User: Which sequence fits this backbone?
């Protein structure tokens, strides 16, 4: 039995050695890796192209020409414009439109035309302080009010800047009114203080200064 046990132990030892030897000698059996699962591709929509910017609108061009019609909606003014020449100034001793409803354009001003390319100021004269006088509303004209002038070439829009009240003698020498300023409009009339005798000649003028507004001219006024 002892021998048998030794033999059994030897056999076990041989088995263990054989197994150990097998671990050392036998090459590992290669294993095949499972095929890689392809990654899902996310399709992304291309970003939408930005809409093209609108092309800039060119400014409206109204070549300078004679004023034909004056409108100021805020004071209910709408009247035709007529020429006032040097001969008329000489005959009447100054600016004295023939009718209360007449709007007179000073044609003696060099380049005093209405247009987007005008080189000087347009001066318009009219009566006030009497019934039906065309410029009765001048004293109520507020800064920012819009006036339009129609010409043979188109319509121009002017915005009120200020109203001046000054002696007639001062009007002729006032740089603010007499300087050469392109694209300007000046509306002029007589001014009668409250209580002033209507039978006596006036000694003051009211002058409303306006400037051409290109944006409003583009859009129409």
Assistant:
């Amino acid at each position: 039995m002892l021998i048998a046990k030794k033999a059994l132990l030897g056999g076990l030892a041989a088995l263990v050695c054989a197994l150990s030897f097998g671990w050392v000698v036998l090459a590992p059996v290669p294993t095949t890796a499972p095929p890689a699962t392809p990654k899902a591709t996310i399709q992304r929509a291309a970003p939408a192209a930005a809409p093209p910017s609108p092309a800039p609108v060119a400014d409206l061009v109204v070549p300078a020409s004679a004023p034909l019609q004056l409108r100021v909606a805020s004071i209910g003014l709408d009247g035709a414009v007529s020429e006032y020449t040097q001969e008329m100034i000489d005959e009447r001793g100054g600016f004295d439109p023939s009718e209360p409803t007449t709007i007179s354009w000073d044609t003696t001003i060099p380049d005093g035309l209405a247009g987007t390319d005008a080189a000087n100021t347009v001066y318009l004269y009219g009566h006030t302080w009497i019934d039906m006088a065309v410029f009765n509303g001048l004293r109520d004209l507020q800064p920012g009010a819009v006036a339009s002038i129609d010409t043979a070439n188109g319509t121009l829009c002017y915005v009120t800047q200020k109203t001046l009240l000054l002696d007639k003698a001062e009007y002729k020498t006032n740089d603010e009114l007499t300087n050469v300023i392109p694209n300007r409009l000046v509306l002029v009339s007589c001014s009668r203080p409250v209580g002033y005798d209507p039978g006596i000649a006036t000694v003051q003028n009211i002058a409303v200064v306006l400037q051409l507004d290109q944006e409003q001219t583009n859009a129409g006024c």
Notes: Strands lie at 67-72, 77-84, 103-106, 121-125, 146-151, 154-167, 184-191, 204-212. The first strand starts at residue 67 and ends at 72.
